[in-house]
């Protein structure tokens, strides 16, 4: 497995550098600081992928906020998605809260649509979402995000929280597998 991971890493194409990603996160934070300044938001990090984005965004946000996590996974160790599996739900009550969902990538949109629906079912009064990167796909998606850092091409990505077979989430840039 490690041989495969190293090969994928060395043959990958850098699509978005650390500098570009950090600038995008700073811009997103400015937009969110404006939009949610008085909303006392509950941020929901969609783990595992959302961890790096959430961590870097959080230190740039200036309003009072709470943080919790939700884990919905559908790619497991694969590069194409399947059924959603719920592994963790937030401990913080969502009732009457303004929720901001944070995820790394909006690909086919199945995960984000399911997390949005969950938040509404739990009684959140407003549901916003922010993604670090969205892939442009030819097909329509079931949902959209309110805040999008970078829009990119439809290739399998890793880095900044995104994994290739559970590895390479720590890559300091956004790469496409070749
Ligand atoms: O728009 P979609 O096609 O639904 O894909 C996006 C989701 O896929 C990834 O999660 P994954 O299921 O790989 O779990 P992970 O967060 O543990 O990587 C990613 O973190 C998003 O949550
Ligand atoms: O391109 C991707 N990379 C990593 N995880 C993902 N989850 C959906 N799409 C992707």
From TrEMBL:
Record key words, sorted: Glycosyltransferase, Transferase
Which positions make up the signal peptide? none
What CDD domains does the record point to? PRTases_typeI
Q: Domain of life here?
A: Bacteria
Q: Which InterPro entries does the record match to this protein?
A: HGPRT, PRTase-like, PRTase_dom
Under what name is this protein listed? Hypoxanthine-guanine phosphoribosyltransferase
Spell out the molecular function terms from Gene Ontology: guanine phosphoribosyltransferase activity; hypoxanthine phosphoribosyltransferase activity; magnesium ion binding
Give GO cellular component annotations, separated by semicolons.
cytosol
Entry's EC annotation:
2.4.2.8
- List the catalysed reactions: GMP + diphosphate = guanine + 5-phospho-alpha-D-ribose 1-diphosphate; IMP + diphosphate = hypoxanthine + 5-phospho-alpha-D-ribose 1-diphosphate
Every Phosphoribosyltransferase domain range: 15-161
Query: Could you state one GO biological process linked to this protein?
Result: GMP salvage
Q: What class of enzyme is it?
A: transferase
> From what organism does this protein derive?
Methylocucumis oryzae
């Amino acid at each position: 497995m490690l041989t495969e991971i190293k090969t994928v890493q060395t043959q990958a194409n850098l699509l978005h550098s650390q500098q570009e990603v950090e600038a995008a996160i700073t811009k997103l934070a400015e937009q969110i600081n404006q939009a949610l300044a008085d909303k006392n938001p509950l941020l929901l990090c969609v783990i595992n992928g959302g961890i790096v984005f959430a961590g870097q965004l959080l230190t740039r946000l200036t309003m009072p906020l709470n943080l919790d996590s939700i884990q919905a996974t559908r790619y497991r160790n694969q590069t194409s998605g399947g059924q959603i599996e719920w592994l963790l739900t937030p401990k913080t009550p969502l009732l009457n809260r303004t929720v901001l969902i944070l995820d790394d990538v909006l690909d086919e949109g199945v995960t984000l649509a399911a997390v949005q629906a969950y938040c509404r079912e739990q009684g959140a009064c407003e549901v916003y979402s922010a993604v670090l990167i969205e892939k442009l796909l030819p097909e329509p998606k079931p949902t959209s995000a309110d805040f999008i850092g970078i829009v990119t091409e439809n290739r399998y990505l890793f880095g900044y929280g995104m994994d290739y077979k559970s590895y390479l989430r720590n890559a300091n840039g956004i790469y496409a597998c070749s």
